[in-house]
Specification:
The complex is a heterodimer of chains A (about 270) and B (about 280). Chain A has about 270 residues and is mainly α. Chain A is built from nine helices and two strands, in the order ααααββααααα. In chain A, strands 1-2 form a two-stranded antiparallel sheet. Chain B is of the alpha/beta class. The chains are: A mainly alpha (about 270), B alpha/beta (about 280).
């Protein structure tokens, strides 16, 4: 028996990386606070470094590949879409020509306005994607349970994620069995749409039946027993330093809000 | 006092016309191993659901008669507390895995976590159970990636680790291949050595004959036959009530018909071999 693996449960779970070993709630506070700063600042000069920072943290935590798989696609779509839409949509305030693409004049002001919005979206989403890619859901649920969330809610969240994968597998099996019964599943979009409905019925009924059995199985594991639950796998509680980090992140967020509001207020009174 | 006492129990599931259990009376004694056999739809699973408290707490429906578990009526039991007394393993190995744990070790520990067991005790109990059920090579694996047979062994481990006094096992091999079936019956053999009260529902009659102390034959919601294993499984009348006789018992009856009776009707292969050997010696072969 792997005694090293078993002994790993005797102490707090650690992965040997500063970011990954932060308490999930600390990470959540930092990521959400900085995500909101992107919204508040709405400035590419702030947003671009923020986006790069999220990429850097993902790389330092060893999760850059998974992070960029989603973030990269998002960047491409948002950058292209918003840049083009801004050039088309912004009719006033364009004074400085930028480039001319086959007779279509692009202006610097529209470009900058576009990038302010791009970096707001990418800065905001980058922080949230960073959080979810570097924080296992079970760690987050564990931390929330420590804060008083019921373990039923924790189970529902975690089981739902697994159910999505199970349903995906089941749908493939059902499609294959429907194919063997003569239902066409390959072809144009209309053929595929027609195949969707004969798949839906068995999938839903199977899901309902397996949910009943799962409820019984969980009951057999004393799921609803009214006793205080213990945990085999434990995470270290947030240290004083981590709590200061969380507070500092929100203070910084507040500071960016004040930085943005003050010119507006002084402008009103001048 | 009997562990579980059923007196004139009848039960009907919600929205159904027919009673799934009809006037069932039986006493389950502590420490014995009971086999429940019978045709599909005979009431075997409903009987298990009743003993486990799923009827009436989970399935609701109409329950008549008295069901006493450790002297207390089932209707007064808190179903959640019953789960700490009576373990339940059933057919589908895929729905018995929680889906929320990333390793087999954590999966097996889940019941103990729910019971509030201290961590060191969890580690000790889970390690012991994994060794006992020979799944120690799987402890780091993701339970969602296991085969059916492996999942069933993990399901057994997670219930056994909870050390309930009684265990209900409902057709644990029906969805398994022969290898998986063999693994499960090795577990059943191990369980027989403990002093738990066991109830096993199975169709594999030759295997039931080997382990059980008493047999209950369910037919159309009622108990058609019950009693010591040898007595029930050696009785050819059980075949008229949807149950099968072990091959060895059929052989014993055929020998009787052929005018070459054995000393008694065997119910296991090893017993048949011994009886045939004894007959040969007696007849000077």
């Amino acid at each position: 028996m792997d005694t090293e693996f078993i002994n790993s449960f005797r102490s707090y779970q650690k992965r040997g990386n500063f970011w990954l070993d932060l308490n999930p709630l600390t990470k959540l506070n930092v990521c959400v606070a900085f995500a909101f700063t992107a919204l508040i600042m709405l400035d590419y000069r702030y947003g671009i470094p923020l986006c790069l920072a999220s990429c850097l943290i993902a790389a330092l935590s060893g999760h850059f590949k998974e992070f960029f798989k989603l973030y990269g696609k998002l960047c491409l779509i948002i950058i292209v879409f918003v840049t083009v839409i801004r050039q088309i949509g912004m009719r006033t305030g364009n004074a400085t020509p930028l480039i001319n693409i086959f007779g279509w004049q692009w202006y610097l002001e529209s470009f900058i306005e576009g990038w302010n919005r791009i970096t707001f979206v990418l800065g905001f989403s980058g922080m949230l994607i960073l959080f979810f890619e570097t924080t296992p859901m079970r760690d987050l649920m564990y931390t929330l349970e420590q804060k008083g969330m019921s373990h039923e809610n924790s189970f529902i969240m975690l089981a739902s994620m697994q159910n999505i994968l199970d349903l995906k597998e089941a749908s493939v099996t059902i499609l294959e069995s429907q194919k063997s019964r003569g239902i066409e599943t390959d072809g144009n979009i209309i053929v595929r749409a027609k195949a969707f409905f004969p798949m839906l019925g068995p999938l839903l009924l199977g899901a309902i039946a397996s949910t009943e059995e799962k409820a019984i199985a969980m009951d057999a594991r004393a799921f609803s027993v009214k006793r205080e639950h213990t945990f085999l796998r434990q995470l270290a509680p947030a240290s004083k330093g981590q709590k200061i980090l969380s507070i500092a992140a929100w203070v910084f967020c507040g500071a960016t809000l004040i930085y943005k509001i003050i010119p507006m207020i002084t402008g009103l009174f001048s | 006092m009997a562990k579980i006492e059923l007196s004139n129990v009848s039960y009907k599931y919600p929205f159904t016309r027919n009673f799934a259990l009809k006037d069932v009376s039986y006493k389950f004694e502590s420490g014995k191993f009971y086999g429940v056999i019978g045709e599909n739809g005979g009431g075997k699973t409903t009987l298990c659901n009743l003993i486990r408290g799923l009827v009436p707490h989970f399935y609701k429906g109409k329950l008549k008669g008295d069901v006493l578990v450790d002297g207390t009526d089932i209707r007064e039991w808190d179903m959640d507390e019953l789960s700490a007394q009576i373990g339940y393993v059933f057919q589908n190995p895929f729905t018995q895995i929680s889906g929320i744990k990333e390793t087999v070790f954590e999966e097996v520990a889940m019941g103990l976590e729910n019971l509030g067991t201290p961590k060191e005790e969890i580690i000790e109990k889970v390690s012991n159970v994994c060794k006992l059920l020979k799944i120690d090579d799987l402890i780091k694996n993701n339970p969602n990636e296991l085969s059916g047979g492996q999942r069933q062994r993990v399901a057994f481990a997670s219930i056994i680790s909870m050390e309930t006094e009684m265990l209900i096992i409902d057709e644990p091999t029906s969805q398994l291949d022969p290898e998986g079936t063999r693994d499960v019956f090795e577990i059943v053999k191990t369980l027989k050595k403990s002093d738990k009260t066991l109830i096993l529902v199975e169709h594999k009659i030759d295997l039931i004959a080997e382990f059980c102390d008493e047999i209950i034959v369910m037919h159309e919601g009622g108990i058609a036959f019950s009693g010591p294993t040898h007595e029930v499984l050696g009785n050819p009348q059980i075949m008229e009530h949807g149950a099968m006789m072990p091959q060895s018992a059929i052989f014993g009856h055929e020998m009787q018909k052929a005018g070459k009776p054995l000393a008694q009707i065997p119910i296991t292969l090893s017993e048949a071999v011994s009886l045939v050997e004894a007959r040969r010696q007696n007849n000077g072969y």
